[in-house]
Amino acid sequence: MSQNPPNLRPDLAPKPLFDTPARPGQPRIGMVSLGCPKALVDSERILTRLRAEGYAISPDYQGADAVIVNTCGFLDSAKAESLEAIGEALAANGRVIVTGCLGAEPEYITGAHPSVMAVTGPHQYEQVLDAVHVAVPPSPDPFVDLLPATGVKLTPRHYSYLKISEGCNHKCRFCIIPDMRGRLVSRPAHAVMREAEKLVEAGVRELLVISQDTSAYGVDIKHAASSGRDGREHRAHITDLARDLGSLGAWVRLHYVYPYPHVRDLIPLMTEGLVLPYLDIPFQHAHPETLKRMARPAAAAKTLDEIAAWRAVCPEITLRSTFIVGYPGETEEEFQTLLDWMDEAQLDRVGCFQYENVEGARSNALPDHVPDEVKQDRWERFMEKAQAISEAKLAAKIGTRQQVLVDSVDAEGATCRTKADAPEIDGNLFIDDDFEGLTPGDIVTVEVDEASEYDLWGRRI
């Protein structure tokens, strides 16, 4: 087992898992899923539909009749990674269908790779299926092509992402997601609950709630209530949804939560044990002038008050966030304000990006872009600060008892996560002794006996 360093790309999706062999003659489709967990959910939906139509899922290029590449287009570096993945799939297989956020710019893709078979945009499920049907006609067998209630999952069976909405109403200057995915569109609450119920019934122990703006869930549909199959009404509001999800008995973890005032209503649910004491909040910066240039709420001081209020109600709450350094116009004074804010906020889990232009983003036109060497220096100083805070916070957990969820077990031990750790982006807790008999999905209690900058070690109690 290896320690888990800070993942500085929290938008990266986990590696897909495939374990269903194909029958002889069954058409096979490969999938490369790039980008955020929201894109991973899109990939799961596409593959679920394909499996229902008789396609097998290939774990490699060579065994696939065609490959779908679900792309990311959030940053220029992500676009380059997507083009590289498309090129790799073309070189290894030759029959490639492109979808996802970068698919909103088809000329950009076909200009680099004119031989792709089709290009579709984000969450265009029907168009992707149509392209697959043309490339590889389906060959269903109604006697064997049956799916579990959860459909096809690209994450381990014991946790699952639960997407509650698409799109975003914010107009941050550095972000083009609203242009790619549109404005906020919330799913009906009863549909979210039905999916969550099916996942928990199938053995999922942790639900990771995701969207572009989780706090705004239901705003577009005026927080309408809808009835499930059992006749129970569910209201499309994040507080109500969190309470309803918490009643299912699984861990519920909230991601991408903007710090609106009503977020404070979620904190009592954490103290009651209905929702994990964990908030993933994209603060992005702390200096008011930088935030104004980003077109984000410029109330960092009030944010510190909110954090203090959350901790007063729920002292064990874990706060995760991401920040951008080197944003156009960022002065040394503004950056120092961010470091000072970090000293006060004492966030538990932190990721950091160096600003880069994104085609179509309004921030590209801002004056006073920061030189690359200055961005690199500020990133290193920021991460040094974040690492010191993380190290101190984890050291304080030595001697405490923690509930952990087992993610994997090998000959060396069990790799687990505490309630403070989201998969892929946060730390791990390792059990080196007395791990025999543990399996992924188990929840056990440990006493922490060692800590590093980002990970913990413990023994079972």
UniProtKB/TrEMBL annotation:
Q: Name one Pfam family in it.
A: Radical_SAM
Superkingdom, natural source: Bacteria
Q: How is the cofactor bound?
A: Binds 2 [4Fe-4S] clusters. One cluster is coordinated with 3 cysteines and an exchangeable S-adenosyl-L-methionine.
Boundaries of every TRAM domain copy = 395-461
Q: Which reaction does it catalyse?
A: L-aspartate(89)-[ribosomal protein uS12]-hydrogen + (sulfur carrier)-SH + AH2 + 2 S-adenosyl-L-methionine = 3-methylsulfanyl-L-aspartate(89)-[ribosomal protein uS12]-hydrogen + (sulfur carrier)-H + 5'-deoxyadenosine + L-methionine + A + S-adenosyl-L-homocysteine + 2 H(+)
SUPFAM superfamilies, A to Z: Radical SAM enzymes
Where does the record place the MTTase N-terminal domain? 27-137
GO cellular component terms, semicolon-separated: ribosome
Amino-acid positions noted as binding [4Fe-4S] cluster 1 in the UniProt annotation, renumbered to this chain: C36, C72, C101
UniProt cofactor(s) = [4Fe-4S] cluster
Subcellular localization: Cytoplasm
Q: Name one GO molecular function term.
A: protein methylthiotransferase activity
Keyword hit for Thylakoid:
no
Q: What does this protein do?
A: Catalyzes the methylthiolation of an aspartic acid residue of ribosomal protein uS12.
PANTHER family from the entry?
RIBOSOMAL PROTEIN S12 METHYLTHIOTRANSFERASE RIMO, RIBOSOMAL PROTEIN US12 METHYLTHIOTRANSFERASE RIMO
- The protein, known as: Ribosomal protein uS12 methylthiotransferase RimO
The organism is Albidovulum marisflavi
Q: Which gene encodes it?
A: rimO
